[in-house]
Design brief:
This protein is an alpha/beta fold. 27% of the residues lie in helices and 22% in strands. The strands form three sheets. An eight-stranded mixed sheet has the order 4-1-9-10-11-12-13-14, sandwiched between helices. Strands 3-2-7-8 form a four-stranded mixed sheet. A two-stranded parallel ribbon has the order 5-6.
């Protein structure tokens, strides 16, 4: 009898944000024109996964305003399943971005009482996770109240069935870093995978080296920690066994959404689609192998970092490691 295949879909739970940029060509001394684009860290992650062919479901609370309509259209057009999402009476979240000469964005958020933070226990319970191998969340939806605590409770139940991935995506202009520091140990206890950027590391563990940070978060419960460093690549640490991955050289237009690339999977047999915006780096043209993080009945392969030849031995060692918790291994 053929063995049933493990689920391969990814569910992303989080916010949508309207990213508004100034439009100099349409602005004047007495008028500021803005161009609004659909964004939000979790929503961007869902779009990237779906465009690469991964079955993806997005769980969000969509306002009935014009931005909510925009969010739904963009996700649906990208092939994202919106089953389980909620139509909400609250307004959408708006972020006005100011890009400096290097393309780095500084945001001003308009998010008080937005739809994204109002999840109820009943809404989350109705979403289910039976078809998913991985549940990814984080960003503002996980830290903002009242919905953040309810999402944590949902993760505590889901982690017995799926691999849980968390990206704090710290936004210090909207939420004090101290609030993230307070919740992060609990998130590590819930997460199988913890992903943070270099900026997140500086805010959450000031003065700590990447290796020290990985060990701290391993001790708190996260089995796999991934730290991203922009043009200097990324560091992945599985139970203290570490590999570094270089970043391809690219011409940066701006950095909006660029960090999301570290969360999307890649396949050596599937060519990514042409990006809609020029802000995403091109795929590096070098051989690579998948980094298999085996977790029976949960997520068979979540990360696929590209490698340099010198990393081959480390990747072969990591590929055989098991992400299950000690208690799960005994079952």
């Amino acid at each position: 009898m053929a063995r049933p295949q493990a689920p391969v879909s990814v569910t992303v739970l989080g916010e949508c944000v309207a990213d508004a940029f100034t439009d100099p060509a349409r602005s004047s001394s007495d008028e500021l024109a803005l161009r609004a684009l659909p964004g939000g860290g979790p929503a961007n992650t869902a779009v990237a996964l779906a465009r690469l062919g991964t079955p993806t479901r997005f769980l969000g609370r969509f306002s009935t305003d014009v931005f909510g309509t925009l969010f739904r259209a963009r996700l649906s057009a990208s092939g994202v399943d919106l089953t389980g999402s909620v139509t909400a009476p609250e307004p959408s979240t708006l972020a006005v971005a100011d890009l400096d000469e290097t393309g780095q964005a500084t945001y001003t958020f308009y998010a008080d009482s937005a739809a994204d933070w109002q999840w109820t226990d009943e809404e989350l319970a109705a979403t289910g996770w039976e078809s998913a191998a991985c549940l990814h969340t984080g960003s503002l939806a996980l830290i903002s109240q009242p919905g953040g605590t309810r999402i944590e409770d949902h993760l505590a139940k889901a982690r017995e069935h799926v691999t849980v991935s968390i990206d704090p995506n710290v936004r210090p202009l909207l939420v004090p870093p101290a609030a993230y520091r307070e919740r992060l140990p609990h998130w590590c206890a819930l997460a199988d995978i913890l992903r943070l950027s270099e900026d997140d590391l500086a805010l959450l563990l000031p003065g700590a080296s990447p290796e020290e940070a990985c060990d701290t978060w391993h001790a708190a419960g996260a089995r796999l920690v991934v730290l991203t460093f922009g043009g200097r690549g990324a560091l992945a640490s599985l139970d203290g066994h570490r590999v570094t991955v270089p970043a391809p050289a690219v011409d940066v237009v701006d950095t909006v959404g660029a960090g999301l690339l570290h969360r999307r999977p890649a396949s050596p047999t599937r060519r990514p689609r042409t990006p809609r915006r020029p802000t995403r780096p091109a795929e590096p043209r070098r051989p690579h192998r998948r980094l298999h993080l085996r977790r029976p009945r949960r997520c068979p392969d979540l990360l696929s970092p590209r490698r340099e030849p010198a990393l081959g031995r480390n990747l072969r060692d990591l590929r055989s490691r098991d992400l299950r918790t000690p208690s799960a291994r005994q079952q």
